[in-house]
Amino acid sequence: MAVITTLTATIAVTFLAAVFPAYAGDTNNAFSPCTDTRVQRSDGFTFGLAFASKDKFFYNNNNSVQLSPCDSRLSLSNSNSQISLFRPKIDEISLLSVNSTSFVADSYGYMVAFAGRKYAARSPPAFVANSSYTVTSFTLVLEFQKGRLQNLYWKRDGCSKCPKNSKAVCLNNQDCAIPTSTCKSHGGPVDCSLGIQLAFSGTDKHLSALNSWYEVKNLRQYSLYGLYSNLRSSLTSQYDKFF
Ligand SMILES: *[C@@H]1O[C@H](CO)[C@@H](O)[C@H](O)[C@H]1NC(C)=O
Ligand SMILES: *[C@@H]1O[C@H](CO)[C@@H](O)[C@H](O)[C@H]1NC(C)=O
Ligand SMILES: *[C@@H]1O[C@H](CO)[C@@H](O)[C@H](O)[C@H]1NC(C)=O
């Protein structure tokens, strides 16, 4: 199974090093998401997801200056926020899951994926949940050039996966969302754990092409969740409860 160890911890400027077991073939010894590194295809790569209200990701509330959560000027640690760290294997399609009994997505609102310090990359803030709606399914693309992370972005496919005949709604023509009141954290029947599918693009430090993005594009028509049979029931059967 490709789910990576999830560590949900209160945000801190310094991250614990080496909380992830290194596996065979992993030559990347950067374990903090706030360090720079170059990777090759067999490596693990650490990145973080920060959860907070949207304005917390911008410097001085100026929404044209988005900083990395690694940048201490954001002082996320002084606000209501959470961080999850992941260490997926480069170029392997992975489905990450954020599942913590203490994690209630609508108390934060948005999430940003981030890694690196001098070469800091961060995704735009993605809406996760408010008191009305919760989005549980995301695709994150990690783009590398010569093994250095260049870009992180959310890939949307409209609402093609949004089941018909259910209480799911399509928000802004891009995210399939379910009513927050139906989530287990709010006394409802639905497991609103977040599922984040990863894809890699670009090249590693030996200029080998990273192909998993190509695979995701081609697999999407068959529903990628089929690859993760043990997650499938928890991530997609939630919709069945409405049929
Ligand atoms: C926000 O930042 C931009 C770029 O630094 C600057 O041009 C603009 O004046 C700032 N806006 C406010 C309201 O501070
Ligand atoms: C929640 O977010 C949706 C989509 O952005 C928006 O339409 C709705 O008004 C928001 N609800 C609340 C209570 O903020
Ligand atoms: C989340 O955790 C709960 C309790 O441990 C478990 O029952 C549920 O299946 C988990 N959901 C996912 C998507 O892993």
Structure description:
The chain is mainly β and 243 residues long. The protein has one domain. It is 8% helix and 27% strand. The protein has helices spanning 212-219, 229-240; strands at 7-9, 47-52, 82-86, 94-98, 110-115, 121-122, 126-127, 133-135, 137-145, 148-154, 169-171, 175-179, 194-202. The strands form three sheets. Strands 1, 2, 3, 5, 6 and 7 form a six-stranded antiparallel beta sheet that branches. The chain has a four-stranded mixed beta sheet with strand order 4-13-9-10, with helices on one face. Strand 9 and strand 10 form a beta hairpin. The relative contact order is 0.17. Bound molecules: 2-acetamido-2-deoxy-beta-D-glucopyranose (3 copies).
